[in-house]
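General statements about sequence and structure are easier to judge against a single worked case. No coordinates are needed to read the tokens, only the vocabulary itself. The sequence in question and its structure tokens are set out directly beneath this paragraph.
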Amino acid sequence: MAGIVLVALSLRGPIIAPTPVITNIQDDIGLSSVAAGLLTGLPVLLFAVITPAATAVIRRAGPEAAILLCLAGILVGTVIRSVGSAALVLTGTVIIGAAIAVGNIVVPVIIRRDVPGPRVSVVTAAYTAALNVGSMITALGTAPLADAVGWRWALAIWGLLALVGLMYWLGLARRRSGAAAADATGDAARLRATSQPARPTLANH
């Protein structure tokens, strides 16, 4: 549940973050009204466009790898969107939208795979709540942050949520790999033990 919540916190906030500071962005980099609209509309459009490719990625690489790709994409896209010109702002937005599209698909897959049936509704509710919390804190916090440190840092700071989630899932992947390696070693040892021929014993005279 902790891993799912950490992912969910980053699946809506990056889309909403530019809205409170859109005027600042337009004034600073000369972003047109159409391009400004794309900052929030483009990720939603990508959800539909990227879904077939995201499904293929999950099927080929596995859910854990897809989660890491999602969080890394959000982090990279957030950084790119925060440091560059209008073109880079839109490029970062595209990366964020594509990464979130992967996350939207893979989280329910992990819930169905790993969560026991009676707890699926609880974990799904926690996931939905985390989506809303991520949206709320981003919407409420971006403008005050922009007043304090500028809009670029105000957008970049939310990448920390993705970074924390990425670190958590990397640690989880290492633990699972270690457990799988230990199981494989144990299975090999048991196989060797059972395949050893029985030692003959001396008959009593």
User: Anything to note?
Assistant: The domain at 2-195 is CATH 1.20.1250.20 (Growth Hormone; Chain: A;).
